[in-house]
Amino acid sequence: MQNRGDIECWLTDMDGVLVHENRAIPGASELLAQWAANETPFLVLTNNSIFTPRDLSARLSASGIEVPEERIWTSALATAAFLKSQSPGGTAYVVGEAGILTAMHEAGFIMTETDPEYVVIGETRNYSFEAITKAIRLINGGARFISTNPDATGPSAEGPLPATGAINALITKATGKEPYVVGKPNPMMFRSALNRIGAHSENTGMIGDRMDTDIVAGIEAGLHTVLVMTGISDEREIDRYPFRPSEILGSVAELIEQ
């Protein structure tokens, strides 16, 4: 297992680690500033595939956290990178918003409703019965079923919202086909992030607030894993799992070098 002193590059989750309900978590801005000053390679990761990195950079800036868009890696970007490696210049029917649509366009994909190679399900607040029906029929017709992330619900001020994983389940029930999910906890999300910054697993750390996505994927990708208690995990939550992170910290503030 790596020691923190061996870590030269960092991957960090966003919600619950750097921000909570659009408010900066104490220490997050200072840690990112320190990484920038030290020229430490890093990426901010999110399973959210609604927004483009530019959108997310602006959202973080409004919270008092400065992260340039090239330092943000989303499940949409990871999905597009994976599909480009599988089928350069391929065709896809995409259900989602700007994050996944922009990423697929920039990866050279052609969007079509006519015999696509892939059906890609991303996050959106505007799922339509028509779009889901079309996805089901295309998958039944032979298109390969891909999803950006497995999260069944997402947060809102009013309470949980159904998210990508819930729509995946609906389509699976109707087709009998399971999607290939690229986002966390698939370690591919981390491997594509490592490739993006030219990092290696032996000297890279992953900071997250969830055992079932961030930490398990970090362990499977061979990273030094840091669980912070500012998200949804508590001590009882940690004990539910048969694996452990490399470190458990109160917040990212404890990673700032004095």
Q: Could you write a compact summary of the structure shown?
A:
The protein is an alpha/beta fold and 258 residues long. 35% of the residues lie in helices and 20% in strands.
CATH names the topology of the largest domain as Rossmann fold
Strand order, main sheet: write it out.
5-4-1-13-14-15
Q: What is the share of helical residues?
A: 25-40%
The number of domains is 2
How would you describe the oligomerization state of the chains in this entry?
single chain
| H-E order | EEEHEHEHEHEEHEEEHEHEHEHE
Number of continuous helical runs: 9
Number of strands: 15
Mean pLDDT: 94
C-alpha termini separation: 24 Å
Shape: globular
Tell me the name of the CATH class of the largest domain.
Alpha Beta
Largest sheet: 6 strands, parallel
What would your notes on this structure say?
The chain has two domains: 4-47 and 184-255, HAD superfamily/HAD-like (Rossmann fold), CATH 3.40.50; 86-181, HAD superfamily/HAD-like (Rossmann fold, 3-Layer(aba) Sandwich), CATH 3.40.50. It has nine helices and 15 strands. The model has no long low-confidence stretch (mean pLDDT 94). 35% of the residues lie in helices and 20% in strands. It has helices at 28-37, 53-62, 75-86, 98-106, 129-140, 164-175, 188-197, 211-220, 235-239, and strands at 9-13, 19-20, 23-24, 42-46, 72-74, 91-95, 110-111, 118-121, 144-147, 153-154, 161-162, 180-181, 204-208, 224-228, 247-249. Strands 5-4-1-13-14-15 form a six-stranded parallel sheet, with helices on both faces. The protein is α/β, with parallel strands linked by helices.
